[in-house]
Amino acid sequence: MTDRLTRIAPGLIKLLSYSFADDFRHDLLAGISVAAVALPVAIAYAQLAGFDPVVGLYSSILPLIAYAIFGTSRQMIVNPDAAVCAMVAAAVAPLAGGNVELYWSLSVAVTFLAGMFCIGASFLRLGALAEFLSKPILVGLLNGVAISICLGQIGKLLGFSIESKRIIPQLFEIFAKLPETQVPTLIVGAASLAILFGLARWVPRLPAAPIILIAAGAAVALFGLDRYGVAILGAVPAGLPPLRLPRFPTDDIPSLLGSAAGLALVLFSSGMLTARSFASKGGYEIDADRELAAFGAANLASALSQGFAVTGADSRTAVAVASGGRTQVTGLVAAATIAAVLLFLTGPLRYVPIAALGALLVFASISLFDTRTLREIWSIDRSEVVLAVITTLGVVALGAINGILIAVGLALVRFVKLTARPRDEVLGTVDGLPGLHSVERHPDARTFPGLVLYRFDGPLTFFNSDYFKARALTVADAAGPELRWFVIDAIPVSQIDTTGLYALRDLRERLEARGTFLMLAGRKAEFLEWFREAGLYRPEHETWILPTLRQALKAYLRESQQIAPLKEDDL
Description:
This protein has 571 residues and is an alpha/beta fold. The protein has helices at residues 2-8, 10-16, 20-49, 53-58, 62-70, 82-96, 100-123, 135-158, 167-177, 183-202, 208-223, 253-282, 288-304, 314-322, 329-344, 354-368, 372-380, 382-398, 400-420, 465-479, 498-513, 524-534, 549-560, and strands at 78-79, 311-312, 424-430, 433-438, 451-456, 485-489, 517-521, 545-546.
């Protein structure tokens, strides 16, 4: 029973053995600190997604409890996230057609469906999906979201609304409406931004988000800034969220399913980056498949409490760690604190100015924009930077969902290209360097008359077998008519299917017709098993598959009776 419960709810097992004496005082302080940051951020992200502020708070209670029960990370804080909010808005806004109630209902529905996708994927053990969105794609996605958020908040800082949804029309609309700038709102927004950047620069340990909203709200209350045209949140309904299943038109299900699948992929990939980062620093492991279920449970909990999609929040997780949080009880304390605010302290929230929330979102979007990682990727592989930039432009021009679809499509094309046309090379020995090395990278490498040592850096399957055979024959032709042995380094051939085995057999027959003997070096047991499974095994296979390249080279030198100054250390 315990083993089954550990598989289903690993967090619950940890909570049942929780040490109040050792950990609670640390988790209590950290949980209150997380709530202090999560409250204003949740309100701001609710504004970003087009909801009433209270919906952001609804999204910050039950998901924390669900993750504490089902998650495997000791430190993760699951909360609303800028990229996920932008995706929810992009997915449901066209379907809602300006109907506020329908918009909210569809957002809850897409959150619910995303949670179901995550749970279904966990049963299929698809935790490896976390690697599907590569680092360049995620960086490009977040950079595109950062640009979109920043542009979308300029109107709030200047005191006018922006109706356009795409970047170029938005820019034209902003310039056209500059004469309509509301000066008191601009002062509040600019002052809020200045304080946020100042605190981040000189006092980075202070929680800037609650400080700025408390200060801005106090200024509105004391000086009556709302009477001068400064827009404020207004009344925030008190009380805990109602629990009910989402209601939405069934005609929208096909559209919602596609959006929910994309949303599930992004929120899980983004959340796993956060979870793995903090787990690595904390010296513990997380289970990707269990995390899929935990993210699914968190989003179902958010949908049932009328909230929107959530994922691992890196900023709030960092606050939990910096404040000394030790376990997931930190998230439970944060949830309880937010619930207490909803019950007893919603009155002061009405004075928070919209411009301060806009400043907070602009600050968050600038922090979200990642140029450092782009520079690192540039030094590794410039084509990956192109992928990141295309993702950014796709998100900005077409919206988050479409931008991701474009990026994933490009990533798939690139993956197929790399796998279908892997690098290949001829090997030789280099004086002073042990082992065998590419003659292309080492022009002084020594090869052996009548012998080719060939490496194909990839699996041998149906989509690259013809390419493999063509490349191998080209190399054999280049070696000339005196070629006697053609040895393939089998170590990089991580997988081979039936088509690949037939290609290998055809290559051997083609080479034998010209008097050349084909040998494989490495993976002897695997290749013999592959031949047996395909029904292509012959007893002679035992003789033309050697354990290593080193043995293949020595066997050739003995067989050809070459006297070569080959030292033991050379290989």
